[in-house]
Design goal:
The chain is mainly alpha-helical and 133 residues long. It contains 7 helices and 4 strands.
Length: 133
C-alpha cells in the first residue's frame, strides 16, 4: 500500500455532506470553531452560510499550491485537526478504497486483500476509536 498522495478522491466523493457528524462535533464547532459551524444547518453539514443551500463540495477542501504547473492537483484540508469523525476514519476497508479508486491501493493489495486490510488497520490505528473492531 502506498502512502496517501493527496489525490482528493475521498474528499471530493464524500465532501458534499454525505458524511456522518456527531452532535458532539457540532456542539464543539459551535463553541470553539464558529467558522466551521457556519456551514452547519439543522445539524447537517455542509451548507452555504448565506444561501442555506447544501454545498456540492466540502468548503474546507483546498488545492495545494503547485511548484510546477504540470503537477497533478494535491488537496489539503483546512480543518484537518477538527474534521468530522467520518473523515478521520477513512479509509476503513480495502473494498471501500477499491470502490472509491483510492490511489493508495497497489496491485499487491488487490492480490492479497486480507494482508492489505491488516496493513491498512495498522496504518489507521491512530485515526480510529479504541472500540473499532
Amino acid at each position: 500500500m502506498k502512502n496517501c498522495n493527496q489525490c482528493g478522491k475521498c474528499c471530493i466523493k464524500y465532501g458534499d455532506g454525505d458524511l456522518s457528524e456527531t452532535q458532539e462535533e457540532i456542539d464543539l464547532w459551535e463553541i470553539f470553531n464558529p467558522d466551521i459551524f457556519d456551514y452547519v444547518k439543522n445539524n447537517e453539514i455542509w451548507f452555504d452560510p448565506k444561501s442555506g443551500v447544501r454545498l456540492k463540495r466540502c468548503p474546507f477542501l483546498d488545492i495545494a499550491p503547485k511548484i510546477k504547473p504540470s503537477e497533478k492537483d494535491k488537496y489539503t484540508c483546512s480543518i484537518y485537526l477538527d474534521r468530522p469523525e467520518d473523515c478521520r476514519h477513512y479509509p476503513s476497508l480495502i473494498a471501500e478504497m477499491v470502490r472509491d479508486e483510492c490511489e493508495m491501493i497497489e496491485v499487491s493489495d488487490l492480490k492479497n486483500p486480507k494482508k492489505a486490510q491488516e496493513k491498512l488497520d495498522i496504518l489507521m490505528l491512530d485515526s480510529r476509536p479504541s472500540s473499532y473492531p
